[in-house]
Amino acid sequence: MCHDDISLAAMAEALGRSTDYRVLRRLVPRTTFAPAIGQDTKTGVLLDTETTGLDARKDEIIELGMVKFEFLPDGRIAGVRDTFSAFNEPSVPIPAEVTALTGIADEMVAGHKIDEAVVSAFVDDAVIVIAHNSGFDRKFVERYWPIFERKAWGCSATEVDWRKHGFEGSRLGYLLNGAGFFHQAHRAVDDCHALLEILALELPTTRAPALALLLETARRKTMRVWAEQSPFDLKDALKRRGYRWSDGSDGRPRSWYVDVGESALEDEIAFLKTEIYLRDIEPRLQTLTAFTRFSVRG
Length: 298
Hints:
By secondary structure, the chain is an alpha/beta fold. The chain contains ten helices and eleven strands. Strands 4-3-2-5-6 form a five-stranded mixed β-sheet, with helices on both faces. The chain has a four-stranded antiparallel β-sheet with strand order 9-10-8-11.
């Protein structure tokens, strides 16, 4: 470390001790976290995609990034085992707004195709795949690589209530800033390294790593409740309660729906009976687990 680096580090340390300043440090990916001496570990994979658009039925992946890591029974991250980063040439030119956001241009992906066998080998021993918007990423990667259909998935954006634990929101940049870092966003493997740092962070409310809370949530069953043929003029009441709209694609009902924990199912059905349908109904229910949640098959 040169003299200037020492001076900057000392200044950052001094500013960090003041209540008038916050210091953000550039995230430097690391490979070691908590020691795993004598403890069994499990393998997880963090995943991020960059795509030509938002529609998983027709848009295409242009970059896949993954970080394979080991974690301990208490949810602490032990270390990084491997990383994966590759481009994929789409069948259409990359939209200008995507290049502006990601920095990925047509000439960077030209001639590149991601090998399915390499992807499958990378994730084969993972007990869980985690993305920061699994409802988006899982639908894309299942189209390309069937191994992801057979994996349990977790979502670090929705399966941790970040606001409840003192953060301003669930966007990756907000979380990283809250942890005292900044990074080069919107490149797939860089976002995976950022996510690893966030999941390793000890939450002030639980004194446990964020990964522990995510795993606990992902292991639970949830129930998807379909409010089929609900009155149109009550759609705002459904939206306020957290219902989302399914347009009927992929063989799913064209209907409002909500996902709730098993313990909240009785209250949800009571809400539909008394506030929406005004009669005794038995709504369509689906049981979701980490193996089906966020999937197009869900």
